[in-house]
Amino acid sequence: MLEAILLVGGQGTRLRPLTISTPKPMLPVAGYACTDHQIALAKKAGVGRIVMGTSYRAEVFEEHFGHGEKVGVELVYAVEDEPLGTGGAIRNAAAHLTCGPNDPVVVFNGDVLTGLDIAGLVQKWRDADADVALYLTRVEDPRAYGLVPTDANGRVLEFLEKPTTLEEIVTDQINAGCYIFKRSVIDSIPSDRPVSVERETFPELLAADRMVIGVVDDGYWLDLGTPLAFAKGSADLVRGIAPSPLLTGRTGESLIEPTAKVDSSASITGGTYIGHNAIVGAGAVIDRSVIFADVEVGSGTKITNSIVSTAAKISSDCTIVDTVIAERAQINAGANLEPGTLVFPDESVN
Ligand code: GTP
Questions:
Q1: Best of 111, 162, 197, 198 to mutate for ligand 1, by most ligand atoms within 8 A of CB?
Q2: pLDDT tens-digit profile of 252-267?
Q3: Where are the domains of the chain?
Q4: Given ligand 1 and candidates 86, 135, 197, 222, which is best to mutate, with the most ligand atoms within 8 Å of its CB?
Q5: Of ligand 1's atoms, which has the minimum distance to the CA of residue 78?
Q6: Whole-model pTM?
Q7: Domain 2-223 has CATH 3.90.550.10
Q8: 162: Cβ contacts below 8 Å, ≥ 6 apart
């Protein structure tokens, strides 16, 4: 049975204030936590057991998933009292693995939306007799990511984490946040301190001439770490541009939960998601946005490219563009929110 480690212990600072109470991987993207989409993808690839590497708001995962009874994959939790970084979290989670030293372990960042063929990546790891196989994707502007140049055989040449100078931008291939590790490699990561897998473990493996390969997959990939990316990821899922085994047959211009009450004169477009028990008034126009459960949107209000968290109340005739509204916040009638506005939980805004 294939085992996996899911890294879900980060603070999600770039998605504050949404992540004050909910860890990033548990925020709903098209109605399911990102973690739900990832577990479904892993299950499809034959993963039968997942160790969840949790730290920040660890209890939220256990309350939602339990031991995986509902998702059909056995889930166990490796909780870090103090966050150990990505490498330290992988090492800490390894204590809960049952596989042997030469077996493959799938490792996933918790904020990646992808349709990656995980089983195919495992096969490439086997074929190359690799210590680690990395999933790589290509992006137009790689500056915010970890660059991973490879040679003609796919062997990784270097790791350049978030390059700052033009000379460092030697490739458009970036680390896409999913790896296949040989179990024994994980066991060699130091266990007594925080470790970054990107800045420390991978460069050390290269320096020791270990077999690290990169596998470019040009299918859908998105890091959901920022509000803009989060809204895009949700809309892409709703419209069927991003794949998820959970949304088969439910995609279209919008995804409205059956318990939501949307006035027939409202316009809901661009891959907007409307959560359970939300209420949307007459003439409201909602485009490319994510509306969580129990939200109220008043008549005539326009919301574009924004995220509105649980039980927030937006009155009538507001204009809201590129904005993040946290849970239970109140936006009063006629408010016009500047792009980039962040509204905190329970805040009231005119
Ligand atoms: P930002 O604060 O906005 O950068 O988000 P983040 O805290 O999630 O960090 P980042 O996006 O770099 O993390 C990549 C993945 O690793 C995410 O899925 C995080 O949940 C996870 N992660 C980061 N640091 C830790 C850690 O110390 N422990 C564990 N268990 N997971 C971590």
A1: 111
A2: 999 999 999 999 999 9
A3: 2-223, 253-349
A4: 86
A5: 30
A6: 0.94
A7: yes
A8: 143, 144, 145, 146
